[in-house]
Write a structure and sequence with these properties.
Helix content is 36%, strand content 16%. The chain is an alpha+beta fold. The mean pLDDT is 93. The protein binds zinc ion.
Length: 239
């Protein structure tokens, strides 16, 4: 009988050790992903999770499927109602989702579900903590200038339709705290105090969940509001 050379035994043992190490790393990696769903592309999105590597891609996918998006709201225990489809052509709205417990003023408009999801993340991950940390207060109202408007960009007679044409956008003008303080995009953006610091923090925070964020830094048309939308067609804008 022919005996195998000692170095063949070593090679076999080395392969076994490498395979074992890879297996342990694989199991450890999977365990880590299970414990960190925000980084796990296979974990269902929960808006209460901290933002992670996979959050952006998952938010992007919500645009393609209203049912999946609404399932995310339900899973995340976000109160909402749905309204029947309305409109036609470029202003047809098949996804009208209205948040049930959101401090929007003067009313809570129906928006697309991806905008509703992004608003929810923004409020909890950015607006509430920034108000507490920078202003020492609680936000009781978020003032807006509207979500739906059947028009093209900048109200032109031609050119691309605005994301507002399907309420896939909302314009935020200010914030009111429980103690009555009011923070206005128009009045407080260029100051240098705590209100300005707060506005800049929540503008940056909006960029974590919205595809497009346009502030007074973008152009004069946005001097009095933040335009937040979930258009995924273009590269992201955060300015
Ligand atoms: Zn807008």
């Amino acid at each position: 009988m022919k005996r195998s050379a000692p170095n063949q035994h070593f090679a076999a043992a080395r392969r076994a050790v490498v395979a074992l190490v890879l297996m342990i790393l694989g199991v450890a990696g999977w365990q880590w992903l299970l414990a960190h769903p925000q980084h796990n592309p296979w974990a269902p999105l929960d808006l209460r999770d901290p933002p992670g590597w996979a959050t952006d891609a998952k938010l992007g996918m919500l645009k393609d499927d209203v049912a999946v998006c609404r399932a995310v709201l339900t899973r995340s225990e976000v109160a909402f109602t749905t309204l029947p489809a309305t409109g036609e052509g470029a202003c047809a709205r098949t996804d009208r989702t209205r948040l049930g417990d959101y401090p929007l003023a003067p009313d809570t408009p129906a928006v697309t579900c991806p905008v509703a999801a992004a608003l929810e993340i923004w409020r909890h991950k950015s607006v509430i903590p920034a108000a507490r940390k920078i202003l020492g207060g609680e936000v009781v109202r978020i003032e807006h200038l509207g979500a739906f408007s059947c028009r093209r960009m900048y109200g032109g007679a031609e050119g691309p339709w605005s994301e507002h044409a399907t309420a896939n956008a909302i314009d935020i003008a200010g914030f009111v705290l429980k103690d009555g303080r009011r923070i206005s995009v128009l009045k407080d953006w260029t100051d240098s105090g705590a209100k300005t610091e707060f506005l800049r923090a929540v503008r940056a925070g909006a960029c974590d969940s919205f595809a497009t964020v346009l502030s007074p830094d973008y152009n004069a048309a946005h001097a009095d509001h933040f335009h937040l939308d979930q258009d995924m067609r273009w590269s992201r804008v955060c300015r």
